[in-house]
Amino acid sequence: MNQPLILIIEDEESLRRFLIPTLSGQQYQVLSAATAAEGLAMARTHNPDLVLLDLGLPDRDGMSVLKDLRAWSRKPVVILSARNQERDKVAALDQGADDYLAKPFGAAELLARIRVALRHTLSADVADPVICSGGLRIDLERREISQGGRPVKLTALEYRLLEALVRRQGKVATHSQLLSEVWGPGGEGNTHYLRIYMAMLRKKLEVDPTRPRHFITEPNVGYRLNLDASSD
Amino acid sequence: MNQPLILIIEDEESLRRFLIPTLSGQQYQVLSAATAAEGLAMARTHNPDLVLLDLGLPDRDGMSVLKDLRAWSRKPVVILSARNQERDKVAALDQGADDYLAKPFGAAELLARIRVALRHTLSADVADPVICSGGLRIDLERREISQGGRPVKLTALEYRLLEALVRRQGKVATHSQLLSEVWGPGGEGNTHYLRIYMAMLRKKLEVDPTRPRHFITEPNVGYRLNLDASSD
DNA sequence: CTCCATACTTCCGGCATCCGGAACATCCGG
DNA sequence: CCGGATGTTCCGGATGCCGGAAGTATGGAG
Q1: What is the pTM of this model?
Q2: Local confidence band at A185 (pLDDT 50, 70, 90 cut-offs)
Q3: At which residues is 4-aspartylphosphate found (chains A, B) (predicted)?
Q4: B206 and chain A: CB distance < 8 Å anywhere?
């Protein structure tokens, strides 16, 4: 993401005329659309790094555009709106928007908030849902796991646990984090369950379950999914 | 993160009185501090999931508090401020703040923006800063420490001690502070343990344990983690 | 109904860590 | 030189965490 691509969905031409040069002058690539339909189409084809979305579009309700976007993309969305009602802000933010700027706004603030939104997605580009490492293959989209070419069947809980570990991308997952994500809130405290199902995952997915390479235990803290098979 | 812990750093008591019950009523755990010094100390000891920071504190400039926090943590920070100047907003956002709310604000909007900030740490993981200094590498988020490229295994206590030092960011940590943070309140007095475990850290993380460059002892006071390896 | 996979529960042994004490070396200021 | 604070190394014992091996429900498929 060297030159982030920003998509502007905004019907007022005067505002577009202002936004496009402002953003272009900041090493951003800019796309713009004047209607919801056009904007959604562009989002699908170009997959921008960030979307500036006006809520007051002529052809469709802005909230439904946001919902549509969120159905398939997690890219940051910054709302621009003439409506300054708290109700609108809360609705948009809870629908998945990352920020909400009421018109009129200053260029400097807009740029700063864009930087914040882009900062969030810098570190974690979870674009690739397929993970391969040392004979292990995890395809979260298709729910297909395989070890050394052989497909592996996982039970519901085993899969939820694996998913929680994968989402952490190699970082530690706390006992309580895993327990509440897999067994639901209230499951904290039963660290035994974790031990049992980690043992299952190891038995099914490790070459040598007694010396795990991928499913690492962090004593006193939790577990971690190691994705560099190189480390030995 | 089942019940996210939120730290409020705010000097106006009336606002604190309003914020605390508002947040507590939303399944959040709440901590509050009235001064910058107190707030930073609480952040270091409790490591909250989100910080609400007032920029107009009496004892210190809010921006310097933000900078101090950002030196060791990427946990979301939402700024509350009476200043509504664009200049202030841009400065705070670029310094690492995640959102900026100008007073007066509505409770619903604040809660929505808190939800957004917490959502970011869940899905699009933000990484804590990685501290590097003279061959020493400390990644608090992944709990990975390495010295000269070699990964180093730390025990639970060693790690807690190192974490307490890192959060002080080069400032001295007194004996009693470290003891109560690592060994729990009541552990004060056993300066012996400190010597033992500081020795461990030095053995594992210093190039020449007999002449420490990073783990400096401040006689009669405590210890300090030196992060400029340049000083020799 | 029976069979079987899954989920939950319990028990136990191994092992790293941690505690607490002791001894001894070192450094520094008075 | 002396005394205090600090650094380093040993050891035995206690603790707690982890992993493995059971056994016990539950619920669905045949």
Answers
A1: 0.76
A2: confident
A3: 54
A4: no
